[in-house]
Specification:
By secondary structure, the protein is an alpha+beta fold. Helices cover about 25% and strands about 25% of the residues. It has two domains: about 130 residues, 3-Layer(aba) Sandwich (Rossmann fold), CATH 3.40.50; about 45 residues, no CATH class. The protein has a six-stranded mixed β-sheet with strand order 1-2-3-4-6-5.
């Protein structure tokens, strides 16, 4: 019996996209799939590490490459940290004890990230990004709008972590690098079906 592992291949500045085995023919060099051949594409926490307009290594280029690889009807699942979580620390000042916002603030204080007391000005969000190795934070709505505006997708929607209509994408986020409720609070998932 042959056990197939998902394949990783370089895309943009990252090597973080994989596809289930046998879902796309690879180029002769064995590196990356041929354009228009990928049925399922998964990308976790890649976009936040690139500024959208960083040329060949930027987020927009990365998204364009993902779109090019997808076959018609292929599905892309993008997992990313959301701008909404750090922004929530700016407002309101009266965070209810025990709320997810309060627990998120407490969790951040235990990391090498600025605590809520330091996040008083928008400029501090840049420090938050640097301390968490993030170049740019999206919201689910921003990314959904960008993908729909490309005209290359027939449907773009958010999904809960670990859930999908596609078996290949289920339970992929079950072992986050932080407490699950914090991961769920600061992360969003988008699935997009190519035209």
């Amino acid at each position: 019996m042959v056990i197939h592992q998902p394949r990783k291949f370089g895309l943009g500045a990252q090597e973080a996209v994989w596809l289930p085995p046998g879902s796309a023919p690879l180029d002769r060099d064995g590196g990356r799939p041929r354009p228009g051949t990928v049925q399922r594409l998964y990308s976790a926490h890649v976009l936040e590490r690139m500024h959208p307009e960083q040329g060949d290594k930027g987020g927009y280029r990365y998204l364009a490459d993902c779109m090019t690889l997808l076959a018609p009807g292929g599905v892309m699942r993008l997992v990313s940290a959301s701008i909404n979580a750090p922004l929530s620390l700016l407002i309101p000042k009266d965070i209810k004890p025990g709320s997810i916002m309060a627990r998120y603030r407490e969790w951040l204080a235990t990391r090498d990230s600025p605590t809520a007391e330091h996040i008083e000005h928008i400029v501090s969000l840049g420090l938050y990004g640097v301390s968490r190795q993030r170049a740019f934070l999206w919201s689910a709505q921003m990314l959904r709008t960008k993908l729909l505006a490309s005209g290359r997708f027939r449907d773009v929607y958010t999904q809960p972590l670990n859930q999908s209509d596609y078996e290949e994408f289920r339970d992929l986020e079950k072992d986050p690098p932080m407490p699950f409720e914090i991961y769920e609070y600061e992360t969003f998932v988008i699935e997009a079906i190519k035209q």
